[in-house]
Amino acid sequence: MGQLKISQVFGPTIQGEGSAAGRHCLFVRTFHCPLECEWCDTPYTWAVTDAKAAAHRDGFKYERDEPGYGLKRMEPWEVLDRLLALWDVQDRPTVIVVSGGEPMVQQPALIPLLHTLAEWGNEVHVETAGILAPLPEFDACVTQYNVSPKLASSGNRLSKRYRPAALEALRDTGRAWFKFVLTSEWEAELAGEVDGIVRDCSLDARRVMVMPEGAEAEGNVRLARKFADAATRRGYGVSFRTHVLLWGNDRDR
């Protein structure tokens, strides 16, 4: 199965986004992402070359081996030990959010970790951009997928960021929620891209949420107020970035 590429293991905290927002959890943040979203809030997991740094709006090149948030090659048991040092996930199970980066590029390596966490009674929530379909052995360990398909505002080309077959495979697990990030161009994004993906991939509107982009609390609230009515008329939910409202852009919360 091999080692895992990890950026952070942290908590306890709360899930900040989507249908599980507010729930107690711990995070396993993986390193590496094949996408290059210009507004990504975890660029330290992928913007480690000049070309990738240039794709992000901050333009900052992160050090791959930076000890705090850079790449750490860990065995599954090492990740478990780290989680246990933070919270007794064996005897007091909780939600474990596996994020990134893009964790689903490491599906085979993640299986032993996720299998043990699930056996101990934890809920395993996987955050993904929805560009890869789940492997059966991986899927068997996952309680919930938090799928965030990327829109044009991410800066990624369409063929790279939009994979209908992968979205449909995640939909068909019956355990996926879909969350779309909206920017100041929310009207065009909602009426064009979001509605189009929901229609073309036959997503259940009751499992669709929209969320404001940004790492500043007041801006999040201001933007969400603009699109909330339009979203709810469609049957979509609205998610804030709860951790941003509470702690700002703290990487460890």
Brief synopsis:
The chain has 253 residues and is of the alpha/beta class. The chain contains nine helices and nine strands.
Task: Summarize the structure in words.
The protein is α/β, with parallel strands linked by helices. The protein has one domain: Aldolase class I (TIM Barrel, Alpha-Beta Barrel). It is 34% helix and 20% strand. It has a 9-stranded mixed sheet. Helix 2 (76-86) packs across helix 3. The longest helix is centred in the last third of the chain and has 17 residues, at 217-233. It starts with a strand and ends in a 6-residue tail after the last helix. It comes from Streptomyces hazeniae. [4Fe-4S] cluster binds at residues 33, 37, 40.
Uncertain segments are none
Q: So, CATH architecture?
A: Alpha-Beta Barrel
Measured by DSSP, the beta-strand proportion falls in 15-25%
Average residue-wise pLDDT? 96
Strand order of the largest sheet: 3-1-2-4-5-6-7-8-9
Based on helices, strands and strand pairing, what is the structural class?
Answer: alpha/beta
Number of domain modules: 1
Gyration radius, in Å: 17 Å
CATH class: Alpha Beta
Largest sheet: 9 strands, mixed
Give the overall shape: globular
SSE series: EEHEHEHEHEHHEHEHEH
Record field, number of beta strands: 9
CATH topology: TIM Barrel
Cofactor: Mg(2+); [4Fe-4S] cluster; S-adenosyl-L-methionine
Domain Radical SAM core: 20-249
Subunit structure: Homodimer.
Function: Catalyzes the complex heterocyclic radical-mediated conversion of 6-carboxy-5,6,7,8-tetrahydropterin (CPH4) to 7-carboxy-7-deazaguanine (CDG), a step common to the biosynthetic pathways of all 7-deazapurine-containing compounds.
